[in-house]
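Many introductory courses stop at the sequence. We go one step further.
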Amino acid sequence: MFTSYANTGVIKSSAQTGWLFNSNTGNPAAGFSTDTYLVGSSILIPPQNFKSGTGYRCRISVTKTAAGTAGLTATLRVGATATTSDSSYFALNLSAQTAATDTTLLTYDFMTRSTGASAALVAHLSSISQPTTGFSSLLKGANGTNTSDITAWAGKYIGVSLNGGASASYTVNMVQAEIYNI
């Protein structure tokens, strides 16, 4: 058995082992013309920290208006506050959008290949939406690799922030986050 925490630090529980989760249970978030931390994306990293093969996944359902055509940036963050002031480890970008209303499902995947002071980290962001409308293609993706010291991650939050660029008008309908193989 394990202990799972909400982004507020409240204990959640599950019959599964090695798995932590969080989600947005309140009203959806809106805006995103500036970098905005996603409520429900943060998970408190437990004392045993990440090991090789531990992953974090965040699924985000986003609707956009015709306003804003800049590329979307999704940033993986780790820190003590579960806000945009936490450290950025990956800022993955999707290309420019079109001036049309659309909905997409973003999936942010992150995994540790190795741990310690020179941990090998990989991330992937994908978007699935209608072809040639607001988010501008059926499937988009971005990859990243990083080498970072993750020895102090235990007891900090991991989560995602979104930035739709100038004039973006997004509504986040759903956020589901999980850490697996912990």
